[in-house]
Prior knowledge:
The protein has 15 helices and 32 strands. The two termini are 44 Å apart. The strands form 9 sheets. The protein has an 8-stranded parallel sheet with strand order 10-9-6-2-1-13-12-11. A 7-stranded mixed sheet has the order 15-14-16-17-24-23-22. Strands 26-27-32-30 form a 4-stranded antiparallel sheet. It is of the alpha/beta class and 631 residues long.
Amino acid sequence: MKSFLSPHTFQLGCNYWASHAATGMWRNWQPDIVRADFNALRQNGLQLLRVFPLWSDFQPLHLLTGGGGYPVEFRFGETPLPDTPAGHAGVDETMLDRFRQLADLAHEHGFQLIVGLVTGWMSGRLFLPPAFSNRNPITDPVVIQWEVRFVRHFVETFKDHPAIAAWDLGNECNVMGQNPTAEQAWLWTAAISSAIRAADPSRPIVSGMHSLTAEPGQAWGIRDQAELTDILTTHPYPIFTPHIGRDAANTIRPILHATAESLYYAGIGGKPCFAEEMGTTGPYVLADSLAGEFARASLFSLWAHDCRAVMWWCAFDQLHLENAPYDWCPVEHELGLLTRERLPKPAMQAFSAFRRFLDDFGRPLPSRTIEAACILTQGQDQWAVADAAFILAKQAGLDVCFRMADQPLPDVPLYLLPSMRGLNSIRRRHWLSLLERIQAGAALYISLDDAILSGLNEAAGVEMLTRAQANLPFEYTFGESVIRSNGAARFTLRPTRAHILARDETGSPVFTHSEYGKGHIYLLTHPLELEQTLASGAFQHPGAHRIYQTISQIACANRACRAASAGIGLTEHPINDAERIIVAINYSGESCDNPLTLAHGWEISQVHYGNPRQVRARDGLVITIKKTVEG
């Protein structure tokens, strides 16, 4: 089981609630419907299901009280807890039997299951046991005691079941309790993960969280979850994740969202991460007729970047349901891969087609080449900056990974310090360590969002003359692109040994390049990444990516393939010194003719998917190239 979501594998799945009842499926248990559901999902190529033993159904505790509200006894309604292992854990054995039936059916159909254990939050509603309705399930010690008992007993009961691949802490448990501190969130996660490991050390623990933070000291941090679980998760939706909804869901930013966020978590956490929930959030965000193209491009992107798996939210539409939360939340109604009648929708058709491609491809995809590390710093909006840097890099033909500035840095030829902000953005020792890498031959790019960085003048070969907190727009021309800025600060500087690459309309340098030891430093005096993030449609009109093309020329010198358009994203996957797999993805809404240019001495040896002469809109091209002569 430890091989679950191992490197260079890719699994397709969805989050499952039964088609007839969704969250009511355990009380209205219909195994024949579950069987038919599983048959339909398997026929359409899915391998992986995330399932949810709803907490209020599986541990239906009531607290009986005496005079003055003094707690006397936990019961199942009026029935005393039985003197059995399940009773001691407060678990309903009828529900355990129903879950076993579900797991047996999953195994019969060849599914692997991720089990969301403490599912007290689902689709806009809390599902807490009645005894805990007025308690905080993350910080209250009484609730945590019973959560641990439930988790331990459930895992012990099913630890030998062959369908179960991984234990998930629960569905978005960081929504269940109000305003815990970072320490309280850590302790809750440690308690639940420890209970799982004690009962079943053989299976990995999946975080199940979304919207984690990168800034140290905040609750529900990426690094805290990575410390205590084995696999991180993202739940990338265009209307819920900050900034993604600024653009139409079938454009480059939302299509790359799941990939960028999963790599962001994986890089900072140091653990694998996959898109555990993903979707368009329905036909009023993106029409079903367009959702298939969105899914297709997203699948190619996640696969090419070794994001291990993707799971759509959810299996079936839920238009027919009248119970809460479906009565409350219209956005929950039309999210399925299949209709209630089990007919495939366009997104399901894209999943099925991608499954067929993977089966035909028939091999693990080797690791992609990574030329740059995007280093995120304190005081900035890390996600906003990271997402923009990833997209700009992709448009420039550059592949990046992510780190925080206080983490060990990978050995790459290029380092990015994008949109640095504040008085304490990076500690001196980390800054000096980075400069040592540049002196040894790497390149460094810095863009400023009103940051103060000691030693910058000497390193970048400039003299900062003035700084003003003036939110005044300016623009400059770089190559064929006009780039506009509304930076929080304006810097005027004089080059001492730097070369000026661009000036604003007043003639003041805004982009410079200097040599530093054996390496290079590029300095941009406005927060390009943050500004791109905050501007709707910015990534659909490429231009700013030319900055990234410039800073990556040396780092990308060994690339064997270049894209003809900024709308084509490439990854290179070396097989050996003479062979590479190229994955090209068209993130734009227009077909691209002659999308690739190969370096001298390389030629296409095999086409696995698509047409090398034209990549359709929101589609992919997968080829193997081989080296015929020395370049």
